[in-house]
UniProtKB/TrEMBL annotation:
Belongs to the CpsC/CapA family. One of its GO terms (cellular component) is plasma membrane. The keyword Transmembrane helix applies. InterPro entries: Bact_polysacc_biosynth/exp, LPS_length_determ_N, P-loop_NTPase. The chain crosses the membrane at residues 25-43. Its main location: membrane. Keywords: Cell membrane, Membrane, Transmembrane, Transmembrane helix. Pfam families: Wzz (PF02706). It comes from Dactylosporangium sucinum. This is Polysaccharide chain length determinant N-terminal domain-containing protein. It is found in: Cell membrane. Residues 514-604 are annotated as: Disordered. Residues 17-97 form the Polysaccharide chain length determinant N-terminal domain.
Length: 604
């Protein structure tokens, strides 16, 4: 497997990422949408009702009415409808409309309630009036249409009257001039040389009078038509505002946008790992395997080999085998044999314990000798699962006891009852073993385990709590980071990867677990555990089998006196397993000079 290959191609898609973000923060989006709907409903309830009524007015040209087309880029006639639309809202028209409505509202305020529209390629004006009640809206629309037509008609009549007055004045002046010319012609003799000139002037003035008279006659016969109402205002049946459906839809949309924005902000500020695709995208760590949420792992779970979790760790085993290069012409399994794989948690918790135990069980299922080494020292056992409960072995002796020299590695190595090829070295019970993971004893222990087992899986402490994981990784051949979703932060994963890479150990990738559930009940786990004898019971059995030494001078063949027995409660040298009561035992007193089987004094 390529260590840089992303976990899934689709996890980096922006659309999928956005959908996943909305799914993770659905409650935030729902709250925002509900709040938007509530705000829209509240706004609708307090919003003032608005009724609208419209009147259509046909605008006619002033004159003979032969060309009723409009100008201003609409059509080619004599009427500028844009100017006419502005005229409807003028103060003069608003004053006349207020008088028609018998309203005491200021004309400019009434004009603010008017909206004029010009349909394309027509000479119509649609005058719409808005009011808080239906009758006022109807009356206002009709009043403004009527006031506009009256104002336009009065303006047209005034224009015609002014033009008639001008023509009359010009005709009067020309008649005066014509009278003077006629009087001068009458005073001249027939052969006077000035007569032709005066006759020419009389002809010109007469022609001008006739032209002006024709124009005057045309103005006097012109019918002034400003336009007409083609569709009068109707009484509106329902208000146009508030629009409940529009307000609710707008509120829901605004709430949705705010919810998505809040989700994006929370996603941006939240540094916890939410899905496997975050690791290759944000911290450049490949994902070897991801346990789906439907598996719902617990703190003390070892998955069945044919279950969903077991199949995932079987694939993880294959990924580990494929990630370590084999010699030329060799097999990856042969290359990995006798090597050490460290599993370190990126954050405090039981993720590394669950991954290490299940990975070791997956290796053991191949028939190869596998050893699981638990390197969580007692001072770093915070919120972690107990391997001895998971695999059914004794809690002590363990690794810390071996490193402290209290027990040998052979006595601390226990066979897992349900996994024939799996041996476990638990954490141990030596509380004062600080710094032992950096000692030469640990190097010797791992070297011995390399010779005895095909696969050695080391459960390391979290990189966020101590430097022990880095020390263990320096002695291993490969490393894996265990990540618990919704608990581990991106910075912790990046720091863990940086620590492991700095010591030169190949980082194979990360194993992602969903948020681990609490372990099963103590009584249920206690009943499921195999009944293993306590250390004191084993020692008692050994001591009772030792032959008693015959005192010097005692006749041979004389029956020995029964040994004296005392009841003692041994002081615990190591912590006892959880939920295991201290037992009072009976031991046999042995003379001091009687050596034990291994040459050491066995008295406690």
């Amino acid at each position: 497997m390529d260590a840089n290959r992303p976990y899934s191609a689709e996890t980096d898609s922006p659309g999928v990422d956005l959908l996943g973000m909305a799914r993770r923060h659905w409650w935030l989006v729902v709250i925002a949408v509900v709040a938007g709907l509530a705000a829209a409903a509240q706004f609708t309830s307090v919003q003032t009702k608005v009724y609208e009524s419209a009147t259509s007015v046909l605008v006619s040209p002033i004159g003979n009415g032969q060309d009723a087309n409009s100008t201003s880029g609409r059509t080619k006639g004599d009427i500028n409808l844009d100017n006419e639309a502005q005229l409807v809202t003028s103060t003069t028209v608003a004053t006349d409309a207020a008088a028609l409505m018998r309203s005491t509202v200021a004309p400019d305020t009434l004009a603010g309630s008017v909206r004029v529209e010009v349909p394309p390629n027509t000479t119509f004006l649609v005058i719409t009036f808005s009011a808080p009640d239906a009758p006022t809206a109807q009356a206002g629309s009709h009043a403004f249409a009527e006031a506009y037509l009256r104002n336009r008609e009065e303006s047209a009549k005034a224009d015609v009257a002014g033009r008639i007055a001008i023509l009359n004045d010009k005709i009067t002046q020309l008649n005066t001039s014509l009278t003077q010319i006629n009087n001068r012609l009458a005073a001249l003799r027939a052969g006077d040389p000035n007569r032709p000139n005066l006759e020419s002037q009389r002809t010109t003035v007469t022609s001008q009078i006739n032209t002006l008279a024709g124009q005057l006659n045309q103005l006097l016969t012109t019918t002034v038509s400003a336009g007409k109402i083609t569709r009068d205002a109707d009484l509106p049946g329902r208000p146009v505002k508030p629009n409940r459906l529009l307000n609710l839809a707008s509120g829901a949309m605004i709430g949705l946008l705010l919810g998505v924005g809040a989700a994006m902000l929370r996603e941006r500020l939240d540094q916890r790992v939410r899905r496997p695709g975050d690791l290759p995208r944000r911290v450049d760590v490949a994902v070897l395997a991801g346990v789906p949420g439907r598996v719902k792992p617990r703190l003390d779970d070892v998955f069945a080999p044919f279950g969903a979790g077991g199949r995932i760790f079987n694939r993880l085993r294959n990924e580990v085998l494929a990630s370590i290069p084999a010699p030329v012409g060799g097999d990856a399994r042969v290359a990995l044999a006798g090597q050490v794989v460290v599993v370190a948690g990126a954050s405090r918790g039981a993720a590394s314990t669950v991954v290490a135990a299940n990975l070791a069980a997956a290796f053991a299922r191949t028939g190869a000798e596998t050893v699981l080494v638990c390197a969580h020292l007692p001072d770093s056992l915070v919120d972690t699962a107990s391997v001895h409960r998971m695999l059914g072995v004794r809690a002590v002796p363990g690794l810390s006891d071996v490193l402290a020299g209290r027990f040998s590695l052979s006595s601390a190595t226990q066979r897992a009852p349900r996994h024939p090829n799996l041996s476990i070295v638990t954490t141990g019970g030596t509380a004062s073993a600080g710094g032992l993971l950096q000692s030469q004893a640990l190097r010797d222990t791992l070297a011995t385990l390399r010779e005895r087992a095909a696969y050695v899986v080391v459960e390391a402490p979290s990189t966020a709590t101590s430097a022990d994981a880095q020390s263990l990784a320096s002695l291993a051949d490969a490393a894996i980071v265990a990540v618990e979703l919704r608990r581990t932060r991106h910075t912790e994963v990046a720091d863990a990867a940086d620590q492991l890479r700095r010591v030169g150990t190949p980082l194979l990738g990360a194993v992602v677990l969903p948020r681990l559930s609490p372990p099963r009940g103590g009584d249920e786990r206690e009943a499921a555990e195999p009944q293993t004898p306590a250390i004191a019971d084993d020692m008692t059995t050994v001591l009772e089998k030792l032959p008693a030494k015959v005192p010097a001078g005692k006749p041979a063949g004389k029956e020995d006196e029964p040994p004296k027995r005392i009841r003692t409660t041994p002081a615990p040298a190591v912590p006892t397993p959880p939920k295991r009561q201290t037992r009072t035992i009976t031991v046999t007193r042995i003379p001091a000079e009687a050596p034990s089987e291994n040459g050491a004094d066995k008295r406690r």
